[in-house]
Amino acid sequence: MQENLPEYPIRVYNTLTKVKEPFRTIEPGKVGMYLCGPTVYAEAHIGHMVGPVIFDTVKRYLTHCGYEVTWVVNITDVDDKLIVRSREKGISMFQLATQMTADYVSNLQALGVDQIDRMPRATDSIGEIITFVEELIAKGFAYATDGDVFFDVTKDPQYGCLSNRSADEQQGEGGGAASRKRSSGDFALWKSAKPGEPSWPSPWGQGRPGWHIECSAMSRGILGQTFDIHGGGLDLVFPHHENELAQSRCCHDKPMVTYWMHNGLMRASNEGGKVGGKSDRTSGDAPKDAVSEVAASEAPDASVSGKISRSKGAGGLAGLISKHTGERIRFFLLRTHYRSTSVFGDEPLAEAGSALETFYRLFERAGKILGCSVYDIPHAMRRSAFEAPANPPALLAELIQLRSSFLAKMDDDFNTGGATADLFEMARALNRFIDQSHLDESPSEANREALRSGLSILREMASLLGIFRKPVSQSSDSSESARLVQGLMELVIHLRAEARTKRDFATSDAIRDGLKSIGVSIQDGKQGTTWESKTT
Ligand SMILES: [Zn+2]
C-alpha cells in the first residue's frame, strides 16, 4: 500500500519475468521512467515515434492515477553512424547531432509527445560515464586493454537473464576489437579513438563511450541506481538492454529496474512480411488478447515481423505529419496494443483518420447544441477527482460504466487498443442520445447538462491518450482539406496514368514537372504511383 495514493489495480507486463505484475513503485507516489532515445544521425522516421507516443501515454496515465512521474529520454549523439554521416555531409558530428535532435523534437511535438522531463545527451555525460567504467573495473567486472575497456560477461553469472540467452550465444563487437577481448561476448564500455574521430580524455587514453554505458550512467545520474520503468523497442532487448542491466546490476549489486517494458515494432502494410532491419522478436512476445483489428487481419503472426527502417523508405515523417496530421498518427499508433507489431501504411492511417472523423463530427454537433466548443469543456484531471452523481440519468450511467471499462483496460498493462473501443462506445452513446432526445432541435436544459457531463467524461479519457487536446484545425492541417488534397492528387495521378497509357509522354511529363515545381514529388513503384509533399 502506498501512502496518500488510492490503490489502483494497475498491472505491467515485465519482460524480465515474462508475466504481468502488480505495479508497485520504489518510492510511494513517485515513478522514475527511462526510455532509450534515438541515435541522432538522420531525420526521424515513424518507427522512432512508436516508443515516445506509448511512453508519453504511460506517463499521462500514471499521472492521472496520482503518481509524480519523472520521464527521461536520452539522446545518443556520439556513435559510429554519426561519425560516418557527418563526414559525408562535411559538417561536424556535433552540428549533425544538433540538427537531427531538433528534427526529432519537432516531430515529437507534432505527435503530442510533451511529457518528457529530461533529455540528456551522451556527450554531456562523459564524466559520469568514465566514473561508471572506473567503478566496473575496480569491482572486477571490466578490463582495459590497449585503450579500450570491455565488460567481462563471464564475471556476471546472471548475464542473459533479460533476453534468455546463455553466455555462449553472445557475440559482442567483432572486427579489430575482437582480438583484444577475453571472450567473444564481452562488449565495449570505452573505445579508443581512431585518428580524426571525436574523442575525450580518459584514464585509458583518448576515446569515446561504447553505446550501452551511456544509459546506465545517465539513468543513475537522474533516476538513481534502481528505478521503476525502463522502456524501449523489442529490438533493444538484446544486446542493448541486456548490457545496460548487466552494467548497472554488477556496479550496484542491486536491480537496475523494477519493470522492463518493451514496445512492439512496426512493419509496412504493403510488404509481405518482415520489413527491413533485423528481427529480434521471438514467438510469444505479442499478447494474443491485445492484437488490434488491423494487426490481426494483416499480421497473423506478429512474431515474424521485423521493424520498419529507413532503408525501406520509411522516411519523410514531416511530410507524413502534414498529410495525415499528428493526431491521426498518434491515434493510429495507440489503436494497437503497445506490445504488438503495428502495421504501418497509408491505408491503416486513412482508417485511423476516418475513425477520428466520428469524434470530430460529434464535437461539431454537440458544440452547436451547447453553444460552446467541446474542447473548452473541463474534465477531471485526476482519476480520484471524478465524482459520479448519486442518481445519474441513463446517458451518464452508461458513460460512467464505459469510463470504468476504459480505466480497467488501461490498468491491464496499458491496453490502449482496448480502451479506444470504449471511447467509440462513448461517442456512439452520445450521438444516440442527441438523436433520441432531438437535441439538435429543442434541447432541454437537463438534456444539455447530461450531454455536457458525458462529453466531459469522454474528454477525460481522451486526455489519457493525448488526443482531442485542441481542435484539429489548430493542431495541424484540417482533415477536410487534407481529404480534398488527397482526392485531387488521386485525380492528377489518374490523368497522368491515362496519358502514359496513350503514350502521350509530353503531357505526363508536364504533370510531373508541374507538381515538382510546387514541391510535390511522385514516384512510380510496384504498388502504383505514390506522392509526397516536400513543402514542410
Ligand atoms: Zn539505452
Features:
single chain, 536 residues, alpha/beta, binds zinc ion
Q: How many domains comprise the coordinates?
A: 3
Helix-strand sequence = EEEHEHHHEEEEHEHEEHHHEHHHHHHHEE
Kindly report the name of the CATH homologous superfamily of the largest domain.
Answer: HUPs
Q: List the ligand species.
A: zinc ion
Beta percentage is 5-15%
Helix-residue proportion: 40-55%
Largest sheet: 4 strands, parallel
Inertia-based shape: flat
Output the CATH class name of the largest domain: Alpha Beta
Structure, described:
This protein is of the alpha/beta class. The chain folds into three domains: 12-263, 3-Layer(aba) Sandwich (Rossmann fold); 352-475, no CATH class; 479-533, no CATH class. The chain contains 16 helices and 14 strands. It has helices spanning 50-64, 80-89, 93-110, 126-138, 213-223, 237-252, 293-298, 317-324, 326-335, 346-370, 394-411, 416-436, 445-465, 472-475, 479-501, 505-517; strands spanning 11-14, 19-22, 30-35, 68-73, 142-145, 148-151, 187-192, 207-209, 227-233, 257-263, 266-268, 342-344, 520-525, 528-533. The strands form five sheets. A four-stranded parallel beta sheet has the order 4-3-9-10, sandwiched between helices. It has a four-stranded antiparallel beta sheet with strand order 5-6-7-8, with helices on one face. Strand 9, helix 6 and strand 10 (257-263) form a beta-alpha-beta unit. Helix 4 (126-138) packs across helix 5. The radius of gyration is 26 Å and the shape is flat. It starts with 10 loop residues before the first strand and ends with a strand. Residues 272-306 have low confidence and may be disordered. Zinc ion binds at residues 36, 215, 240, 244. The site of zinc ion (ZN) has 4 residues, from helix 6.
